[in-house]
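A reminder before we start the practical. When you read a complex entry, don't treat the lines as separate problems. The point of joint prediction is that each chain is placed relative to the others, so the output describes one connected object in space. Small molecules and nucleic acid strands, if listed, are placed in the same frame. In the example below there are two entries. Take a minute to note the order of the lines before looking further.
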Amino acid sequence: MKKLTLLLGLFALAFLPACKDNEEGGPKADFTVTFKSNFAGEQLTKYKSYAFGAAGIPLQFTRFSTYLSDIELLKADGSSHRLAEIEYIDFTPENASSDLSATPAITYSNVPEGEYTGLRIGYGVKPWLNSKTYNDFPIGHPLAKEIEYWSGWTSYIFTKIEGKADSDNNGTLDVSLLYHCGSDAVYKVYAFDLPIHIHTGQPGISVNFDLEKIFTMDDGSFYDIVTNFYTSHDPNNVVVAQVLMHNFKKATTVTQ
Amino acid sequence: MKNLFTKISLGFALALGVLACHDLPTKEPMPGDLDHIPYDPQPYAIMKPSSFPNIPVPADNPMTLDAVQLGRRLFYDPLLSADSTQSCSSCHLPQGNFTDNKAVSIGIDGISGRRSSMALLNIAYATNGLFWDGRSASLEEQALRPVEDPIEMHNTWTQVIEKLRVHPTYPALFRKAFGINDRDQISEKLAARAIAQFERILISSGTSKFDQFKEGNIDVFDEEELDGYLMYFEEAWQYGLNLPDAQCFHCHGGITLTGNNYFNNGLDSVASLDDFKDLGRFEVTGNHSDKGKFRTPTLRNIALSGPYMHDGRFQTLEEVVENYSKKGFGVSNEDPNLPLMGLNAPNNTLSADHKKSLVKFLHTLTDTVFIKNPDIQNPFQ
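Here is the predicted structure of the whole assembly.
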């Protein structure tokens, strides 16, 4: 009997942190996360020419969308509150009346008020969701988008960045940029430390992605977009996708 | 004589009674005149291949057997046009993959439209706008437009509804479909809902050679068809083959072979975006960079859907592939996938054999079971 009690006690202890997340008492608030896309700090605009790299190569973007998994608020005690399991963020929707990138704002309800220490984001579709297909989700679910699933990879396309570049700066956009990143191998989770105050009436947070930094290497050099202008279609060759998904961390800023 | 008069009177009364039972045409309002007809809506389960996405159905227009049948009848009925000569099916025929196989359609007054009729196969999935420019948000909204388009049916919904209300058959069908109490409740909204329900069942059978291949029957393709498939979907790596990328699936992707997105697919060389003869998506969004963009149609049954493009400029699939292999004209809003057509081929250019293989693959998308499905044929024939 003592052994059984001990086992039950250990069992309860083991699952205590997990339960804690689901048993958050106290006041709740609506909390809005606004997603923004930039290039060199300027709001991204489709077809606008940006100067990229040391040579100032003219660069334009035509599409930028991304999946984000397990968007979580972090607490000082190591626990977390999950805002969303999966979101599809489209910065260049096709019904827009201008080329200025969209700034989708998503409001999450019943978020426990309090002080948080950071935000954690999964970049792409986390593996257990990525093992499913568009058919496994109800209409309107972010993962029900057939066109965002690549059956050849048995993977969702985590992020799409498309555009053109003028490689020799002669006025002609001669390089097509086609970066479609996918597969479990390139899924990344990054955390961002910042104080986040959640109380009724308090502003939400902004999550900003800077495309220039997605194409900037850790040593500050610029990615060779002329040579590596597209992601391979072979899922065994994800070199380019790895670089871009790695760079997402420094391309992301979270502010309140 | 009296006996004869009685017989005639009785016969007349009986005849009137019979006519009344058949909903004698009348313009007089008759509240509750349809209440005697049973209203027992039965759900309609849309058949779809298992690999297809779930079919979106609006909550305010649930699929029922009777509404689908009403919609089918309305779809094929020339009553909708001003001179009762044209129906929806005049431009959307089953054997043409629900197109009319004309470059541009011609309305009741003999006036040519400016765009080609779009295939309706799998149109239920087009939740990103309908028509070539996406100007209707839903099938229900779309179904309202051709009736009053002066180039198409050149009618008014007021006149159509008048005809439907006095029709010997339709009031009862509307009652069965939507539970209306009297013929005055027949409306353009209900007519559009019924037509939308019929259009929503126009789903692939899943029996094309392509579908059989996707189900694992890899021997169904010959060598050229397989090459075409691998170039289309850029999956040559799976077979250790060295084939170029045709970039097709980026725009015509997924199992339905369209993302229903909008592209400038490199048809015209223009000095500025304002010079496009047809401004396409811009007419809806007002966004300058949308000029010359059009919605991607599904490529399923594409061999039956010609001529091709929004203006029907290409008669054959060979012409279409040839045009794409030219990689556009460098117009500023051309899709960046275009210049990569033929990537990894010698000189990054598709050979004649590559193009032939692509066309052969496109023919494997033909779904004759769908176009012969008796449930979607003209009920008046």
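Discuss with your neighbour: Residues 209-365 of chain B form a domain with the Cytochrome Bc1 Complex; Chain D, domain 2 fold (CATH 1.10.760.10). What might explain this?
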